[in-house]
Amino acid sequence: VYKAQCMACHATGVAGAPKSGDVAAWAPRLKTGFDALVNSALKGKGAMAAQAGGDFSDVEIARAVAYMANQAGGKFAEPSPPAAVDTAAKQ
């Protein structure tokens, strides 16, 4: 997800995006907490369009947020994907 959706801006800092691994740029963002970072990614912030409703699920976007934040010193656990529903067992 990072490579497909986030890297184009976060690898280079396009339009003010904090670069992956840039501790100074990410520090104030990390202080807001994981939920705030995910909310910004899903709803959009600054030049970044909302990522919700696109090619990736909200959980996949949250996992990419954790990945980027952790590259800059964050200590966030990547959310687990939702458990698959066993439809055969319900029949």
Largest beta-sheet characterization: none
Taking pLDDT < 50 over at least 5 consecutive residues as the criterion, the unreliable ranges are none
SS strand fraction? under 5%
Helicity level: 40-55%
Distance between the termini: 34 Å
Quick synopsis:
By secondary structure, the chain is mainly α. It has helices at residues 2-10, 23-31, 34-43, 58-71, 87-90.
Care to describe what's here?
With 91 residues, the protein is mainly α. It is 51% helix and 0% strand. It has five helices and no strands. α3 packs across α4. It is globular, with a radius of gyration of 15 Å. The protein starts with a helix and ends with a helix.
SSE blueprint and pairings:
Layout: H1 2-10, H2 23-31, H3 34-43, H4 58-71, H5 87-90
Helix pairs in contact: 3-4
Observed structural traits:
mainly alpha, globular, 51% helix
